[in-house]
Design goal:
two-stranded antiparallel ribbon, binds iron/sulfur cluster
């Protein structure tokens, strides 16, 4: 199928790319102001606000997380689609791979094969629980106490080079930094390159947006607040759908949009939706809109979808590597465990360790499985 993502309404797509770029630009500017020019308006704004909130530390990160959660009640996971810096780098990897026209990836992308089993919530929950473990340990030692400090933590906390060391102070090996301007720039570039490389390989093996779909612990947290508010804006059918499924083929999250609106009163209910509007812009009939009003009834006859989206595992959407829930669960737990070991080097390395662990474990399972069965376990493109 032709890549309609590239040809559909480029304006909104470009605006979204711009927003994702701007978030990364903001982070870099914040770091340079803080460390290079000693201008310190507020501290780190990141998802690290979750443990801070739990500990009772009201800081800039905690306030940002509270805003993000509030936004999910109204817009769904639009934060993921428009304002998450990791998503920005992930989209950049996708863009680079499309430009390079990497055959295997393009094939994977066209089939929209992403790892998304019906047990994904269990895997995510495990990742989230493991992420919260240090908080639980902290709370065991220190009692909950309400504090307020907008300048804490510093913007580079948990990242390579924090406190003048490449890794955390307890790491078995290290390298010192003096925080002059060129070293700050080097650390920022190094961090971005590491994130880019990790997401590049994850996308390459498991499809577009794989980190968000498989490993991100915060996706589970945000999804918890999705679909609660009955007036939440959702991708909605506002016209007559022909059933062409262009929308489904274009969704970067692998959602079978067409089936969703067929089964759920004209609304996309999937908690994977990040409000990127690619489906809206791809639909030539202008059938979709992001709104809280009721959907238009479908009066024109259309091919029936007898099975619900998650039943459609080997065709197009909501698709998987069919290795079963047990191996899914084991591979995620093991990769999060790899992340926990890597986090001895600092919080940032949890991200890298989890991705590297996941890629290695899944490829090993793939290889062994093919060896035993003598056939591919990955659904082939139709
Ligand atoms: S799922 Fe996680 S990494 Fe992906 S956009 Fe959302 S918060 Fe960011
Ligand atoms: S919503 Fe639009 S793109 Fe999707 S199946 Fe219907 S007509 Fe086709
Ligand atoms: S359903 Fe539409 S808006 Fe939601 S993630 Fe998929 S393409 Fe984006």
């Amino acid at each position: 199928m032709k890549d309609r993502v590239l040809s559909a309404s480029p304006l909104r797509r470009k605006l979204r790319y711009f927003c994702l770029f701007a978030v990364n630009f903001y982070i870099v500017a914040h770091v340079l102001l803080w460390y290079g020019f000693d201008i310190k308006p507020w501290g780190k704004t990141a998802m690290t606000g979750v443990p801070a909130l739990i500990r009772g530390n009201i800081n800039s990160a905690a306030i940002m997380v509270a805003f993000i959660i509030a936004s999910v009640f109204i817009f769904g996971r639009a934060f993921c689609g428009w304002a998450c810096h990791i998503r920005g780098i992930l989209e950049l990897s996708d863009w680079v791979m499309r430009r390079l026209n990497i055959k295997g990836y393009m094939k994977l992308r066209r089939s929209n094969i992403l790892l998304n089993t019906r047990y994904a919530w269990l895997l995510r929950m495990s990742a989230f629980a493991i992420l919260l473990m240090p908080v639980a340990l902290y709370l065991k030692k220190h009692s909950f106490s309400l504090t307020f400090d907008m300048r804490s933590p510093a913007p580079w906390t948990d990242l390579p080079g924090n406190e003048g060391l490449l890794f955390a102070s307890q790491a078995p090996f290290n390298m010192a930094f003096s925080y002059n301007f060129s070293e700050i720039v080097f650390l920022v570039v190094l961090t971005l390159v590491i994130i880019f490389t990790a997401t590049f390989f994850l996308n390459f093996f498991f499809g577009q947006g794989a980190f968000c779909r498989i490993l991100c612990p915060y996706a589970f947290m945000l999804a918890l607040f999705d679909n609660i508010n009955p007036f939440q804006r959702k991708i909605t059918r506002v016209g007559q759908c022909s059933g062409c499924r262009q929308c489904a083929a274009s969704c970067p999250q692998g959602i079978d949009v067409s089936r969703e609106i067929h089964h759920f009163n004209g609304k996309v209910r999937s908690r994977e939706c990040i409000k990127c509007f690619t489906c809206v812009d791809t639909c030539e009939g202008r059938v979709l809109k992001d709104t809280s009003v009721a959907a238009a009834p479908q009066v024109i006859p259309r091919a029936e979808y007898d099975r619900r989206p998650w039943h459609n595992e080997f065709k197009n959407m909501q698709s998987i590597e069919a290795i079963g829930p047990t191996l899914d669960f084991v591979s995620i737990i093991l990769s999060v465990f790899c992340g926990a070991i890597a986090s001895r080097l600092g919080g940032f390395w949890f991200f890298v360790g989890t991705i590297v662990g996941f890629v290695v474990i899944r490829l090993t399972i793939r290889f062994l499985s093919q060896l035993i069965r003598g056939a591919s376990i990955v659904p082939q493109e139709k």
